[in-house]
Amino acid sequence: MIDYIKGVITQVTPTFVVVETSGTGYFINISLTTFSKLENKTDVKILVHEVIREDAHLLYGFADPQEREIFRHLISVTGVGASTARMMLSSLNPSEIEHAIIGSDVNILKSIKGIGLKTAQRIIVDLREKLGKQAGGGEIFAPADNTNREEALSALVMLGFAKSAVTKVLDKIVREEKNLTVEDMIKRALKNL
């Protein structure tokens, strides 16, 4: 397994880079995030993830360990391949993806080309706990008490309010004060809807 390739860039585009080392040029698929960090560089060390299939041997390159780690988490989700994960990392930076997953923000993930509602939900369900534990040093990091927020959201939607409007209001309330009961969240939300 190749961990990284260190060498001279002979060609770089927004989707791939060719790195020459010891007389061999390696074609490495990259995201826009990595491309922006490689522009105007000649000597590089690119972290690599190998994808070996029956019909191809592909290399995916990353400018930093966080991006490679998020990539590896994403491809562990059923239905998310290396190309989709690269598209996600080209649309959002690794921190934005991590925050969207931990915060259960389906809409941010759905805004990425090729990611539908079911895939976004699956990514969140599969990765929220893993990424939350890493971010919180053993504790699951999630915006306030997610159970209370979800109950308040459900109640307000049943009262006839639009889910998107309720979500925005509840997110704002949760950011301002973390330990609210369901009733307090609903009361505050009603004042803002």
Short description:
This protein is of the alpha+beta class. The protein has helices at residues 32-38, 65-75, 82-91, 94-102, 106-110, 117-135, 146-158, 163-176, 182-192, and strands at 4-12, 16-21, 24-29, 43-52, 57-62. The relative contact order is 0.08.
Description:
51% of the residues lie in helices and 19% in strands. The chain is of the alpha+beta class and 193 residues long. A 5-stranded antiparallel beta sheet has the order 3-2-1-4-5, sandwiched between helices. A hairpin with a 3-residue loop joins strand 1 and strand 2 (16-21). Helix 2 packs across helix 3. The longest helix is centred in the middle third of the chain and has 19 residues, at 117-135. Residues 137-145 have low confidence and may be disordered.
Question: What is the element layout, followed by pairings?
Answer:
Elements: E1 4-12, E2 16-21, E3 24-29, H1 32-38, E4 43-52, E5 57-62, H2 65-75, H3 82-91, H4 94-102, H5 106-110, H6 117-135, H7 146-158, H8 163-176, H9 182-192
Antiparallel strand pairs: 1-2, 1-4, 2-3, 4-5
Helix pairs in contact: 2-3, 2-4, 4-6, 7-8, 7-9, 8-9
Radius of gyration: 20 Å
Distance between the termini: 54 Å
Characterize the largest beta sheet: strand count, sense, and whether it forms a barrel: 5 strands, antiparallel
Main β-sheet, spatial strand arrangement: 3-2-1-4-5
Give the proportion of residues in helices: 40-55%
